[in-house]
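Consider the subject:
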Amino acid sequence: MMRSILYTLPFFLLVHIHSIQAQDKILSKEEAIDLALENNLDIRVARNTKKIDDNNASILNSGYLPTVTAIGGGSIDVQNTEGQLASGDVRTADGAETRRYNASVDVNYTLFDGLNRRYTYKSFKERSQQSELEVRQTIENTILQLFTVYYEVARLTENTNNLGQALEISKERLKRAEYQFEYGQNTGLDVLNAEVDINTDSINLLNSRQQLRNTMRDLNLVLNQELSNQFLADTTVNFVPGLQMENMHEEAKLNNVRLQIVDKEMIINEYNVKAAKSVFLPTIGLTGTYGWNESNNNSPLAFLIQNTSTGVTGAVNLTWNLFDGGRGVTGIKNVKIGYENQELLKKQIELEVERDIRNAWDSYTNALFVLEVQEKNLQTNQNNFKRTDERYKLGQVTSIEFRQAQLNLLNAELAQSQAKYSAKLAELQMLQISGQLLNVDF
């Protein structure tokens, strides 16, 4: 009874795995990138931030346009009035009512504000361009995160297939051991060892499948999809040919997004320094008003019963803050210190980028060397297992030696798969630092 359970558990497990793989469709790298660019929440937030900065950099927020204000009002005044005429007669007016109405359109325009408006507008323009770079940075980080998870799905897919094949080999070995035991060609110990190895392979396969499902959920999270979506990853890996350290270093100096962002920040701070100096210059403004006023008075003592007037008023104003208590000077000093800090930060980022690109290149070349070694090791273990399998069928090696050759092959397959995807991720990290991640085919 125990032996039948050992048979049926791996069998139904494999049937379940193959049925899932048959139903799932392959999620290509291009489709994964398209889904991430469209759905990833971090990218969508970055793009919305870019829209805000674009709005701030528009002419409507520049201060170059005039302001137009409409004003209207009305009042009622009721009074008891007593007055004496030149003839000596006294007249009274009880409840005399006076109604007044007014309306005007005011236009205000700043002709000159000490160049503060000019440099602030330029600063907004630079900030809009910097925001575009930040969107690119978010996209690069998201794509790197995407492929970190995507290739982990691919690696676990290969591992699951290899573990499934190992389980099939162990099942065949158990059948052979049982036949040999029935015909008295070995002891029951070989059968027990084969059963133990089947249980071990089954557990390893179950754990691999669980890791694969968990990693698929991680990938669905990056893609902002239903976490229950099932798919197959493309396990083919192509490396970018002709990469050279000198070229990568120069590309990083020119195209690294962190350096480009800090360059924009330097320009913005330079404009902030110039805008702060506007406190020393005057402000010249132009105002214009078109107004209408009407007054109605029913008092018999009033000189005018109704009065209506319209007119246009224009004025030029000059304001020069000769001394503001030192706040302007303090502000300029602080802005200059901020600019100096930005220069220091730029130097720090330049050093970090140079370190990162050199480390990334070393990691990339080392990973390629490890991959080459693991591929040779896999070929050696494949040949060794093939020969061991032939000799095992002829009874020339023991089941323990056969199992060791099987494990060596499995470990070589897993190591080669790990090395392949580690090398590709090292390449992607180097391309990101050099600013070329979005310019290559994946």
Q: What stands out?
A: The longest helix spans residues 116-182. The CA atoms of residues 39 and 225 lie 8 Å apart.
